[in-house]
Amino acid sequence: TGRHLHSSEAMNGCTLYPPNSQLFTDDVIGSVVQRAWMSNERIEDDEGDSFERREDSQLPSKSQYSRLKQRVEDTTSIPVKPAPSMENKKTRGQFESFSLGNTEDSVVIKPAATGEERQRELRRMRQVRYRKKKYDLARRLEEGTNKLREEVNELELRRRAISVAVPTDKSAWDVALKYFQVFRFGVRQSVADSVAPSDAQLNFLLSNMSEDVVFNSRCGAEAIMQVWRCQSLWLKDFELELRGLNKHSGNTLKATMTTSFIVSNRTLEKVFPHLSDKNGNRSGIWKSRIANALLGRRIIAHGSTYFEWDPVLGRVSSMTTQADLLTPVLRLLGYVEDVAVVFEKAIVSPDFHWKQVM
Questions:
Q1: CA 77, 80, 82, 83 torsion: positive or negative?
Q2: Domain spans in the chain, listed from the N-terminal domain onward
Q3: In terms of pTM, does the model score above 0.85?
Q4: Which residues lie in Polar residues bias regions (predicted)?
Q5: Tens-digit pLDDT profile for the chain (358 aa)?
Q6: Within a 13 Å sphere around the CA of 204, how many CA atoms are in the beta-carbon half?
Q7: Residues 257, 264: Cα–Cα separation, whole Å
């Protein structure tokens, strides 16, 4: 019995045996009486003869059954250790340790550093933001590139249309195209500062315009140069851009263009002198407010120029040009009353005709 208890305790100490292993010891199993063969069971010997074995069944007696029952009760009364437990201890959201039943089997896990996890998360978020910035930059560059391609294609189509329409010999088409090339940025600064006009620009007018060429309400190549000189001096960053050239009727061509410039202090002084009213009255304050609203702003006016060709002389006999100044000024000021004040005493009309030049 001592050996049995010692063996049982050893088995209980091992985690590989179930807690009721005491019920399967040699003493318990050995005390079970073997069942007898059934009376009608046949046995065959080596020579092939068979006979029936009719021994009575051997059942345990009452005393044996009592001893067996007492032994089983004594065995089940032995205290059984609880099954090994897995104890999880949680601290700050992290597992510190878990136990397998015995102290020597405990495994301790150090808590993860919260600071390191936070740094790892911050690095991940930075990488996400960096990738998003790169993606947005690439998308903007792609959109800008596509827009530039469209503009290049549009300009190429315009160039081809103009080049196909222009004949090889000198004609109104050739003169009109050359005119916008020569005067695209107005009169050169050296021309405006000197007494003599630019030889290249004046020679172009003299060689391609008739002597009495009509330019709006003026006449002659010198009158055209005078208008261009004033525009170049009084309108900052002046630019004339050709947008299209078409045959209008008969010997007349129609060129569509945009005229752009910046309103400077000289523009207010020379073109809109009435806005520089220094009086402190209500009218002076109103005009000063309008002048401040226009100062430094770029005005883009859409217009057209008509070239009338004289086939006998092979020159341009008349030029009529106009541009819409009213719309961009109204867009800047927002009130029709203010626009009326701007053009009330200005030396330029809303259709970009100069009333007087120097």
A1: negative
A2: 2-81, 84-112, 117-165, 168-344
A3: no
A4: 58-67
A5: 444 444 444 444 555 556 666 655 666 556 555 555 454 445 444 445 444 444 444 555 666 667 666 665 555 555 545 544 444 444 444 444 444 444 444 444 445 557 888 888 999 999 999 999 999 999 999 999 999 999 898 888 877 766 655 554 568 899 999 999 999 999 876 544 444 446 789 999 999 999 999 999 899 999 999 999 999 999 999 999 999 999 988 899 999 999 999 999 999 999 999 998 666 567 778 888 999 999 999 999 999 999 999 999 999 999 999 999 999 999 999 999 999 999 999 999 999 999 877 5
A6: 17
A7: 23
Nearest to 172 by CA among 316, 306, 305: 316
Burial class (CB in 10 A: 0-12, 13-18, 19+), 213: buried
User: 133 in helix, strand or coil?
Assistant: helix
CATH topology for 168-344 is Nuclear Transport Factor 2; Chain: A, (3.10.450)
Question: With contact defined as beta carbons under 8 Å apart, do 261 and 237 qualify?
Answer: yes
Asked whether the beta carbons of 214 and 267 are under 8 A apart, the reply is no
| Sole residue written with tokens 């106009």 | 322
